[in-house]
Automatic annotation (TrEMBL):
It is found in: Cytoplasm. One of its GO terms (biological process) is tRNA modification. Residues 261-325 form the tRNA(Ile)-lysidine synthase substrate-binding domain. Residues 34-209 form the tRNA(Ile)-lysidine/2-thiocytidine synthase N-terminal domain. It is an enzyme of class 6 (ligase). GO terms for cellular component: cytoplasm. The N-terminal region contains the highly conserved SGGXDS motif, predicted to be a P-loop motif involved in ATP binding. This is tRNA(Ile)-lysidine synthase. The keyword Transport does not apply. It comes from Agrococcus baldri. The lineage of its organism: Bacteria, Bacillati, Actinomycetota, Actinomycetes, Micrococcales. The gene is tilS. NCBIfam families: lysidine_TilS_N (TIGR02432). Its EC number is 6.3.4.19.
Length: 330
């Protein structure tokens, strides 16, 4: 068969997904292995096809890992089907990992935790540089909206990071409709997860009810606006984290059982930076994450100091001693 008949035509959707993969992996050294987290759905299948194509061009190796959560009948067969599609795309190695999902708490959270543990295992065993995830712009918008509704603080509005540790999300600027079209254009049939239509799950209700309603009321473009918000907040947060890390080296003094911070220098900083420095110091020394309310209580020893006694936090006592804020293990 002639080469031009064997290769699918390059459509805008295929080009968009390939470009996203190329940009997300342009720093990976030649000869390295990339693994695609493949469910068999349209997003991960489009990602797998694009990764297979781009890896060959860039001198990389590309494989796939399929996580079988065992949460619905026929999950093993679904995993085998996805593995067969990965092999047809030229991916190698192709791994199927069966996991046990803890029955307690949120099923979504438990499945996510088990999945990421399996991806970490596969990366280590195969020596992969990175694992590519198929989250799209629409997934990002849903994540930001859920965080906003829960009032979980600024960090929840950052959405998903394009890169965090060994995980990379090339498709965060690609619409879900584009991945579906890309699969159709290259002639691969994705699996449709019935959980994606199950209204018991909050994300499904947001996807099928809330976002369409917001688009209707606000005139469209809500998903794009939410993802732009996430990008902006993440950039601001990264800048604040950089400034906090720089300052903490000058403000902190280590002592037996804890540390102290220069209260005068803390007071000279704007609240957002002051509170981040306090949280960072406590996290680094005591491996404890302070809530916003706890951080504000500590901050008042800096900004509203009038001789009050120490603050008792879980495992930590914080007191004002002259010009220093003293943190000791309780």
């Amino acid at each position: 068969m002639p080469e031009n008949e064997r290769r699918p035509r390059l459509t805008p959707a295929v080009a968009d997904v390939r470009r996203a993969v190329r940009e997300a992996t342009d720093d990976v050294p030649a000869g390295s292995l990339l693994l695609v987290a493949l469910s068999g759905g349209a997003d991960s299948l489009a990602l797998a096809a694009a990764t297979a194509f781009e890896a060959e061009r860039a001198g990389l190796r590309a494989g796939a890992v399929i996580v079988d959560h065992g949460l619905q009948p026929g999950s093993a067969e679904i995993a085998e089907r996805a593995a067969a599609q990965a092999r047809e795309l030229g991916l190698d190695p192709v791994r199927i990992l069966a996991v046990q999902v803890a029955p307690d708490g949120s099923p979504e959270a438990a499945a996510r935790q088990a999945r990421y543990a399996a991806l970490l295992q596969a990366r280590k065993e195969e020596g992969a540089v990175a694992v590519l995830l198929g989250h799209t712009l629409d997934d990002q918008a849903e994540t930001v909206l859920i965080g906003l509704a829960r009032g979980s603080g600024a960090e929840s509005l950052w959405g998903m990071h394009p890169r965090i540790g060994f995980l990379r999300r090339p498709l965060l600027q690609v619409r879900r409709a584009t991945t579906h079209q890309a699969c159709a254009d290259v002639g691969i049939a994705p699996w449709h997860d019935p959980h994606n239509d199950d209204d018991r799950f909050l994300r499904v209700r947001v996807r099928h009810r809330v976002l369409p309603m917001l688009d209707d009321v606000l005139g469209g473009g809500v998903a794009l606006a939410l993802t732009r918000t996430a990008d902006t907040l993440r950039e601001d947060a990264e800048a604040l984290a950089h400034f906090a890390q720089e300052q903490i080296l000058d403000l902190v003094e280590h002592a037996e059982g804890g540390l102290s911070l220069d209260a005068g220098a803390l007071a000279a900083n704007p609240p957002a930076l002051r509170q981040r420095i306090i949280r960072l110091a406590v996290q680094s020394e005591f491996h404890t994450a302070l809530s916003r309310q706890q951080t504000l209580e500590v901050s008042r020893l800096v900004t509203d100091w009038h001789g009050q006694g120490p603050i008792h936090l879980p495992g930590i006592r914080v007191s004002r001693e002259g010009r220093r804020l003293v943190f000791v293990a309780a």
